[in-house]
Amino acid sequence: MNRNIDYVRKSIAQRKRNKVKSTGYDPVSRRIAPPQDEEMHGFPPIVTGGFPGAPTSKKRSSYLGVQVICSVLLFTGMFVSQKTNLAITAEPEAWVVNQLEEEFPFASVTAWYNERFGDPLQLVQSKDENQSKGLALPVNGTVTEPFQNHGKGIVMTTDGGSAVKAVKAGTVIFAGNDEQTNKTVIVQHKDGTNTIYGFLSSINVHLYEHIEAQEAIAQLNPAEGETKDFFFAVKKDEQYLDPIQVIKVDEGSE
Protein backbone atom coordinates (compact mmCIF):
# COMPACT_ATOMS: atom_id res chain seq x y z
CA MET A 1 0.00 0.00 0.00
CA ASN A 2 2.77 2.44 0.93
CA ARG A 3 4.55 1.64 -2.33
CA ASN A 4 1.46 2.60 -4.27
CA ILE A 5 1.16 5.90 -2.38
CA ASP A 6 4.82 6.77 -3.01
CA TYR A 7 4.38 5.87 -6.67
CA VAL A 8 1.32 8.17 -6.96
CA ARG A 9 3.16 11.05 -5.24
CA LYS A 10 6.12 10.68 -7.55
CA SER A 11 3.82 10.59 -10.56
CA ILE A 12 2.07 13.79 -9.47
CA ALA A 13 5.39 15.53 -8.87
CA GLN A 14 6.64 14.42 -12.28
CA ARG A 15 3.52 15.75 -14.00
CA LYS A 16 3.93 19.14 -12.25
CA ARG A 17 7.53 19.38 -13.41
CA ASN A 18 6.50 18.55 -16.97
CA LYS A 19 3.74 21.17 -16.82
CA VAL A 20 6.21 23.87 -15.63
CA LYS A 21 8.57 23.07 -18.48
CA SER A 22 5.79 23.23 -21.07
CA THR A 23 4.37 26.60 -19.86
CA GLY A 24 7.66 28.30 -18.94
CA TYR A 25 6.30 29.39 -15.56
CA ASP A 26 8.56 28.66 -12.65
CA PRO A 27 7.16 29.62 -9.23
CA VAL A 28 10.55 29.14 -7.68
CA SER A 29 12.23 31.67 -9.98
CA ARG A 30 9.55 34.34 -9.33
CA ARG A 31 10.87 37.04 -7.08
CA ILE A 32 8.70 39.39 -5.07
CA ALA A 33 10.33 42.77 -4.61
CA PRO A 34 10.22 44.24 -1.12
CA PRO A 35 7.97 47.28 -0.64
CA GLN A 36 9.54 50.65 -1.50
CA ASP A 37 9.82 53.48 1.00
CA GLU A 38 7.06 55.34 -0.82
CA GLU A 39 4.66 52.40 -0.37
CA MET A 40 5.46 52.13 3.32
CA HIS A 41 4.45 55.82 3.77
CA GLY A 42 1.22 55.56 1.83
CA PHE A 43 2.45 56.84 -1.57
CA PRO A 44 2.27 54.88 -4.83
CA PRO A 45 5.46 53.05 -5.84
CA ILE A 46 7.85 54.59 -8.31
CA VAL A 47 7.50 52.84 -11.67
CA THR A 48 10.77 52.55 -13.53
CA GLY A 49 9.69 50.39 -16.46
CA GLY A 50 8.14 51.61 -19.67
CA PHE A 51 4.41 51.68 -20.35
CA PRO A 52 2.86 49.67 -23.11
CA GLY A 53 1.44 51.77 -25.87
CA ALA A 54 3.68 54.79 -25.16
CA PRO A 55 4.47 56.86 -28.29
CA THR A 56 7.66 55.78 -29.90
CA SER A 57 10.43 57.98 -31.23
CA LYS A 58 9.26 57.09 -34.74
CA LYS A 59 5.86 58.66 -34.10
CA ARG A 60 7.45 61.81 -32.66
CA SER A 61 9.73 62.00 -35.67
CA SER A 62 6.75 61.73 -38.01
CA TYR A 63 4.99 64.63 -36.22
CA LEU A 64 8.13 66.76 -36.50
CA GLY A 65 8.40 65.90 -40.19
CA VAL A 66 4.83 67.05 -40.84
CA GLN A 67 5.51 70.37 -39.07
CA VAL A 68 8.68 70.92 -41.10
CA ILE A 69 6.84 70.21 -44.36
CA CYS A 70 4.01 72.63 -43.45
CA SER A 71 6.55 75.34 -42.59
CA VAL A 72 8.35 74.86 -45.89
CA LEU A 73 5.08 75.03 -47.84
CA LEU A 74 4.04 78.22 -46.01
CA PHE A 75 7.40 79.87 -46.65
CA THR A 76 7.31 78.81 -50.30
CA GLY A 77 3.80 80.23 -50.73
CA MET A 78 4.85 83.58 -49.23
CA PHE A 79 7.98 83.69 -51.41
CA VAL A 80 6.03 82.93 -54.59
CA SER A 81 3.40 85.55 -53.79
CA GLN A 82 6.13 88.17 -53.38
CA LYS A 83 8.00 87.25 -56.56
CA THR A 84 5.04 86.81 -58.91
CA ASN A 85 2.24 89.06 -60.07
CA LEU A 86 -0.52 86.47 -60.01
CA ALA A 87 -3.99 87.92 -59.57
CA ILE A 88 -4.82 85.35 -56.88
CA THR A 89 -2.07 86.72 -54.62
CA ALA A 90 -2.63 90.42 -55.27
CA GLU A 91 -5.67 90.87 -53.05
CA PRO A 92 -4.27 89.09 -49.91
CA GLU A 93 -0.98 90.95 -50.29
CA ALA A 94 -2.75 94.32 -50.56
CA TRP A 95 -4.82 93.51 -47.48
CA VAL A 96 -1.72 92.65 -45.42
CA VAL A 97 0.09 95.83 -46.50
CA ASN A 98 -2.97 97.94 -45.70
CA GLN A 99 -3.30 96.41 -42.24
CA LEU A 100 0.36 97.11 -41.49
CA GLU A 101 0.24 100.71 -42.71
CA GLU A 102 -3.19 101.70 -41.38
CA GLU A 103 -3.16 103.67 -38.16
CA PHE A 104 -4.83 101.89 -35.26
CA PRO A 105 -7.93 103.84 -34.06
CA PHE A 106 -6.90 104.26 -30.42
CA ALA A 107 -9.28 107.16 -29.80
CA SER A 108 -12.30 105.33 -31.23
CA VAL A 109 -11.57 102.27 -29.10
CA THR A 110 -11.20 104.46 -26.02
CA ALA A 111 -14.49 106.25 -26.75
CA TRP A 112 -16.28 102.91 -27.24
CA TYR A 113 -14.87 101.58 -23.98
CA ASN A 114 -15.84 104.79 -22.18
CA GLU A 115 -19.43 104.53 -23.41
CA ARG A 116 -19.70 100.87 -22.42
CA PHE A 117 -17.87 100.82 -19.09
CA GLY A 118 -17.73 104.44 -17.94
CA ASP A 119 -13.96 104.94 -17.56
CA PRO A 120 -11.41 105.75 -20.28
CA LEU A 121 -9.31 102.85 -21.53
CA GLN A 122 -5.73 104.10 -21.24
CA LEU A 123 -2.24 102.88 -20.52
CA VAL A 124 -1.34 106.03 -18.58
CA GLN A 125 -3.85 107.64 -16.24
CA SER A 126 -5.15 111.04 -17.30
CA LYS A 127 -3.98 113.79 -14.99
CA ASP A 128 -7.25 115.72 -14.88
CA GLU A 129 -10.66 114.18 -15.63
CA ASN A 130 -12.66 117.39 -15.11
CA GLN A 131 -11.22 119.61 -17.80
CA SER A 132 -13.46 121.82 -19.88
CA LYS A 133 -14.46 120.34 -23.25
CA GLY A 134 -14.80 123.57 -25.20
CA LEU A 135 -13.23 123.77 -28.67
CA ALA A 136 -10.57 126.49 -28.93
CA LEU A 137 -7.09 127.10 -30.28
CA PRO A 138 -4.32 125.35 -28.32
CA VAL A 139 -2.59 128.59 -27.20
CA ASN A 140 -3.26 132.29 -26.89
CA GLY A 141 -1.31 134.05 -29.61
CA THR A 142 -1.31 135.54 -33.09
CA VAL A 143 -1.50 133.55 -36.32
CA THR A 144 1.61 134.65 -38.23
CA GLU A 145 1.53 132.01 -41.00
CA PRO A 146 -1.91 131.00 -42.29
CA PHE A 147 -2.79 127.57 -43.67
CA GLN A 148 -2.61 128.83 -47.25
CA ASN A 149 1.16 129.43 -46.99
CA HIS A 150 2.12 125.75 -47.15
CA GLY A 151 -1.15 123.81 -46.87
CA LYS A 152 -0.26 121.83 -43.76
CA GLY A 153 -1.06 123.95 -40.74
CA ILE A 154 -0.69 127.33 -39.11
CA VAL A 155 2.09 128.97 -37.17
CA MET A 156 1.21 131.05 -34.12
CA THR A 157 3.45 133.34 -32.12
CA THR A 158 3.38 133.95 -28.36
CA ASP A 159 5.45 136.39 -26.38
CA GLY A 160 5.20 134.72 -22.99
CA GLY A 161 5.19 131.32 -21.33
CA SER A 162 2.05 129.42 -22.26
CA ALA A 163 0.55 125.97 -21.81
CA VAL A 164 -0.43 124.13 -25.00
CA LYS A 165 -3.89 122.58 -24.60
CA ALA A 166 -5.55 119.80 -26.58
CA VAL A 167 -8.43 121.11 -28.67
CA LYS A 168 -10.41 117.86 -28.20
CA ALA A 169 -10.30 114.70 -26.13
CA GLY A 170 -8.24 111.91 -27.64
CA THR A 171 -5.26 109.57 -27.37
CA VAL A 172 -1.60 110.53 -27.78
CA ILE A 173 -0.12 108.56 -30.68
CA PHE A 174 3.18 110.45 -30.92
CA ALA A 175 5.21 112.38 -28.36
CA GLY A 176 8.79 113.18 -29.31
CA ASN A 177 11.07 114.87 -31.80
CA ASP A 178 9.98 115.38 -35.42
CA GLU A 179 12.40 116.31 -38.21
CA GLN A 180 10.32 119.34 -39.29
CA THR A 181 8.53 120.51 -36.13
CA ASN A 182 11.05 119.48 -33.45
CA LYS A 183 9.31 118.55 -30.18
CA THR A 184 5.86 117.45 -31.29
CA VAL A 185 2.71 115.84 -29.92
CA ILE A 186 0.07 114.16 -32.13
CA VAL A 187 -3.35 113.40 -30.65
CA GLN A 188 -5.81 111.05 -32.32
CA HIS A 189 -9.56 111.77 -31.90
CA LYS A 190 -12.57 109.48 -32.24
CA ASP A 191 -13.90 111.42 -35.26
CA GLY A 192 -10.88 110.24 -37.27
CA THR A 193 -8.89 113.48 -37.08
CA ASN A 194 -5.38 113.96 -35.73
CA THR A 195 -4.26 117.26 -34.20
CA ILE A 196 -0.56 118.07 -34.40
CA TYR A 197 1.25 120.40 -31.98
CA GLY A 198 4.83 121.35 -32.89
CA PHE A 199 7.78 123.61 -31.97
CA LEU A 200 7.15 122.83 -28.29
CA SER A 201 9.50 123.71 -25.47
CA SER A 202 8.56 120.68 -23.36
CA ILE A 203 6.07 117.80 -23.49
CA ASN A 204 3.80 116.85 -20.59
CA VAL A 205 2.16 113.66 -21.91
CA HIS A 206 3.15 110.12 -22.80
CA LEU A 207 2.52 107.80 -25.71
CA TYR A 208 -0.99 106.25 -25.70
CA GLU A 209 -2.15 108.48 -22.85
CA HIS A 210 -5.83 109.45 -22.96
CA ILE A 211 -6.32 113.21 -22.57
CA GLU A 212 -9.36 115.41 -22.20
CA ALA A 213 -10.26 118.57 -24.15
CA GLN A 214 -8.32 121.64 -22.99
CA GLU A 215 -5.89 119.50 -21.01
CA ALA A 216 -2.33 120.88 -20.99
CA ILE A 217 -0.14 118.59 -23.08
CA ALA A 218 2.97 120.76 -23.51
CA GLN A 219 4.62 124.08 -22.70
CA LEU A 220 5.92 127.04 -24.71
CA ASN A 221 8.71 128.89 -22.94
CA PRO A 222 10.24 131.70 -25.07
CA ALA A 223 13.45 133.31 -23.94
CA GLU A 224 13.12 136.59 -22.09
CA GLY A 225 12.27 139.42 -24.48
CA GLU A 226 11.68 137.05 -27.40
CA THR A 227 8.67 135.38 -29.03
CA LYS A 228 8.01 131.69 -29.51
CA ASP A 229 6.58 130.07 -32.64
CA PHE A 230 4.04 127.28 -32.34
CA PHE A 231 2.85 124.94 -35.11
CA PHE A 232 -0.69 123.55 -35.17
CA ALA A 233 -2.28 121.26 -37.79
CA VAL A 234 -5.37 119.13 -38.26
CA LYS A 235 -5.19 115.99 -40.41
CA LYS A 236 -7.89 113.57 -41.53
CA ASP A 237 -7.70 110.70 -44.04
CA GLU A 238 -4.14 111.71 -45.01
CA GLN A 239 -5.36 115.25 -45.86
CA TYR A 240 -4.53 118.44 -43.96
CA LEU A 241 -7.42 120.71 -43.00
CA ASP A 242 -7.36 124.43 -42.30
CA PRO A 243 -7.31 124.63 -38.47
CA ILE A 244 -8.96 128.04 -38.59
CA GLN A 245 -11.94 126.58 -40.41
CA VAL A 246 -12.10 123.62 -38.05
CA ILE A 247 -11.85 125.66 -34.88
CA LYS A 248 -13.94 128.48 -36.42
CA VAL A 249 -12.00 131.44 -35.09
CA ASP A 250 -10.64 134.58 -36.77
CA GLU A 251 -7.01 134.90 -37.73
CA GLY A 252 -5.04 137.24 -35.53
CA SER A 253 -7.26 136.60 -32.51
CA GLU A 254 -5.72 136.55 -29.13
TrEMBL record:
<feature type="domain" description="M23ase beta-sheet core">
    <location>
        <begin position="152"/>
        <end position="243"/>
    </location>
</feature>
<keyword id="KW-0812">Transmembrane</keyword>
<dbReference type="GO" id="GO:0016787">
    <property type="term" value="F:hydrolase activity"/>
</dbReference>
<keyword id="KW-0378">Hydrolase</keyword>
<keyword id="KW-0472">Membrane</keyword>
<keyword id="KW-1133">Transmembrane helix</keyword>
<feature type="transmembrane region" description="Helical">
    <location>
        <begin position="63"/>
        <end position="80"/>
    </location>
</feature>
<dbReference type="InterPro" id="IPR050570">
    <property type="entry name" value="Cell_wall_metabolism_enzyme"/>
</dbReference>
<dbReference type="InterPro" id="IPR011055">
    <property type="entry name" value="Dup_hybrid_motif"/>
</dbReference>
<protein>
    <submittedName>
        <fullName>M23 family metallopeptidase</fullName>
        <ecNumber>3.4.-.-</ecNumber>
    </submittedName>
</protein>
<dbReference type="InterPro" id="IPR016047">
    <property type="entry name" value="M23ase_b-sheet_dom"/>
</dbReference>
<dbReference type="Pfam" id="PF01551">
    <property type="entry name" value="Peptidase_M23"/>
</dbReference>
